[in-house]
Amino acid sequence: MTVSGKTAVVTGSNSGIGLGVAQELARAGANVILNSFTDRPEDHALAESLAKEHGVAVRYIAADMSKGEDCRALIEKAGKCDILVNNAGVQYVAPIDEFPIEKWNAIIAINLTSAFHTTAAALPMMREAGWGRVVNIASAHGLTASPFKSAYVSAKHGIVGMTKTVALETAGQGITCNAICPGYVLTPLVEAQIPEQMKVHDMDRETVIREVMLERQPSRQFATVEQIGGTVVFLCSAAADQITGTTISVDGGWTAM
Q1: Model confidence at 52, in pLDDT bands (50, 70, 90)?
Q2: Which of 183, 178, 63, 77 shows the shortest CA–CA distance to 121?
């Protein structure tokens, strides 16, 4: 599968799932726009490294996904957007009656509203080109729920709904829109939580992963960023031309229960 010559914008992509997606798209031949809210030398160095590794053009563009004007400016600065991967996201956990209003607002803005702005800005470019792919990184929590995650679950359910709407609005135009719903993915952020969980539960690494962290994931295995990236590349391939408006779960069987 190849997306050679296409330009992909991946939000929230200087680490974790976003970086894994960017890596796989670059490996498949796409030119890539990396993004986060920081603007550090290491962000731009990461883009240079990715470009050198895969022989494609890679740029880093800073944009705060909590601000609508930044979201739209990201697409405008990219200049071209054949593939849009809405990945940026944050999390906060608390009972709903204790949930800080500012945390609710931030999660909805970054996890949901940012995708509205970037998609609205990118679709005219895709329509002009006669081809486009919008891939929203949702979550198993876009299909089910957990306690204490009211904002995150609401945002991810919203992303799934918006995915269906965009798919209907673009059907027959050479543009598809789908959502990927990962379960637990082994990212640096998750990796950093393992030692603390080992202390709290007095368990070894493998036991705490299997019995605590992956309790709801029947495979008892983390998904990898490469697997999420590979799923994005598949959705951008000709094999997926008629896949639109749906969700693909990469969750080890979580949502099958």
Answers
A1: very high
A2: 77
For the question of whether the overall pTM of this predicted structure is more than 0.90, the answer is: yes
Q: Is 92 a catalytic residue?
A: no
- Do residues 47 and 128 both lie within one domain? yes
Residues 110 and 195 in one domain: no
- The CB density around residue 104, as the number of other CB atoms within 10 Å, is 18
Q: Are residues 151 and 94 both part of a single domain?
A: yes
Q: Is the predicted pLDDT of residue 204 greater than 90, yes or no?
A: yes
- Which one is catalytic: 60, 92, 152, 184? 152
> Are 51 and 155 contained in the same domain?
yes
**Residue 121 within a domain:** yes
Same-domain pairing of 35 and 126: yes
Q: Which residues contact 177 (CB under 8 A, 6 or more apart)?
A: 119, 133, 134, 135, 136, 163, 166, 167, 170, 244, 245
The residue among 145, 140, 63 whose CA lies nearest residue 109 is 63
